[in-house]
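2 proteins. here.
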Amino acid sequence: MLGTPESHPAGRSADLGDPDPYPNYAWLREHAPVSPIYSPHASTTTWLVTSNELARAALADPRLSNDDRNSAGPQAPFGGGEWDPARSLLDLDRPEHTRLRRLVAGTFSPSAVEQMRPMMERVATEAIDGFIAAGECDLVHSFSLPVPVAIIHEVLGVPPPEREAPERCLDLFWRTGLTQPVDTVALRELLAYVKHLADYKRAHPGNDVGTRLLRGFDSGELRDENELQSMILSVLGAGHVTTVQFLGAAAVRLMQHPDQLRALREGAVRWPDAVVEMLRYDSPVQASAYRYVTEDMEIGGTRLAKGDAVLISLASANRDPGRFSDPDEFRIDRETRGSLAFGHGAHLCLGSHLARLEGEIALGTLFHRLPDLRIAIPFAHIIWTYGPMLRGPRRLPVTFTPGQPGPAPLAGDSSDTWETHHA
């Protein structure tokens, strides 16, 4: 996309991080809410939509396709043949998108996600137990990264011995889905990992999403092995890449606003409500996946040609003063209706309920277990990375009073999946 390998935290710009994008978004919303932008690897015009009203309309407009076969430029390696098993949910339109989404939609419904609460509590507790005695840690490395990676593997039914390391898992998805050109070496490795997960679930079926996808393959709902691997890839990536950014950014804001954290602890504000504001204020997904114009059209009075690419800035839409009062202020008691943190329309994030509950439990557990958690560097020195498509802190050195590990989980819980005990 807009990023390059050099913008990755391991790249040359790692020491500087990503600049604050919000002043630029504010200027664009006022002066050019639909504007052409530079995209280093695109051969067609790319447009950026920045206002909340236009973003909401564009996300639901069927003339804007997620399928890059509607682009005037060359197709990406994904879905094109040699490198990719099949297009993912993000790369398809109706009816194919609906057919594949339906396979797992029930698993991510509010009632189904609520059944995952004990599993999420266990995962968060185990992560904190790993560093609580030290009195200090890098909160990204020790918590906001490993917790989402562990949870989505649990949802897929993959136990710890079969999992890729959290850092490597995130890195593979970054290099193969959020940079241009795609790192084909990393893509080969990622696809081999997905095949390993499919093979493992065939040999170890259970009451989990991985097994349900395999049953969809056996019943013909998934047409071939390529679609099976693509669906595993979609669930695995969507389940952790953005949540890593969300948990890190949310922890920053709560440490930055101790009065609002106190309100949460005292019950004056509910965690579920606060999580929605955290997602609005620091949108972990800064922009939508590319859309492609299927016919000449207008957005906000600007003419777009068939084949043009469109990026919809969720981050800018969520800071639009036309929708939110004082949008650059962090207020956990804010009325947040209108937030586009999870998108809108047919591609509204399938895992939105999962992400909200994950934030509620992970952050609630963290600040309960570590009541004097504080960042060890000035807030202005935090390096934000993974832009421009994602945004989160690269590292968060924190200190706290050393403590003891919490109660041990139920026997067998550390290796079994959540549905073994909470089906």
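next one coming up
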Amino acid sequence: MDVLADILAVTRLAGDVFWHTHAVPPWGLRFDPAPVVWFHIVAAGSCQLVPARGRALALGGNDLVLLPHGAGHVLCDDPASPVISLDEFRAFLATRRALSARKRPPAGDATELVCGNYSLASARTHPVLRLLPAIIRIPGREVVDRTALWWTLQLLLRELADRDVGSQTAVSRLLDVLFVQVLRHWLDTAEGKRTGWLGALRDEPIGRALVLLHGSPEVDWTVASLARAVGLSRPVFARRFAAKVGATPLGYLRDVRLDRAARLLAESDEPLAAVAAAVGYSSEFAFNRAFQRAHGVPPGRFRRTRRS
């Protein structure tokens, strides 16, 4: 089982490009905090990313930036430049297509940008994704060095520029591929190896434990039974799992069950008792209580809200 694929299916990340544009100085765009994963690609030129806290990041050609927690930030040519909000800029583009990449690019110091986000099916982010840092930046030279990532970006830029038949579908699929490649790159960096939640998938016993938890969340797993299944002693497994994943085995199992339940409620007409049993709860009452604690609403109301 591909655990990462299961995680992405549960979170239902859906990529969307706001615009592919050429920005001419002075310019500044404000992105307010939101339950999304922001991303920016500097196809040409340079700019700065100014987070709500911390120092500004200078971005150059082919740089790629991901903000996994939807943190507020400003993208600009210079921190002193005037700033408008995302909504204001969208309204401008709706009435004035002068900045569209399909027009002739302006001469001079224009910065070619691709900006967008990955929206989440639920405001409750998967516990694994929460372990990512606030900002993931891949410098342009590293993008070029990673052939698959480089060509994915080139294909994305071509689809955005050409707008040929099926471009919307092609862009959506390329954004899915791009997200996985960014995560792989982060895993291979020093930071990813140090904190790396994805590193848990490459750690043989912990990776097998994750496969078991995602593949069979309905099983009445205990720390001891998981440890036996992966060939480790109970205390060694518990410490290693917590160090790699950032959660206890049973805490992680609870989150997997409730995220899977949310997906079943949104996508099926199964009775609540059947959903509870499918994710490992023998008591519908216990399931209702755990689900409300995690999602803020009872499962029945959650389903009705999603359907409406």
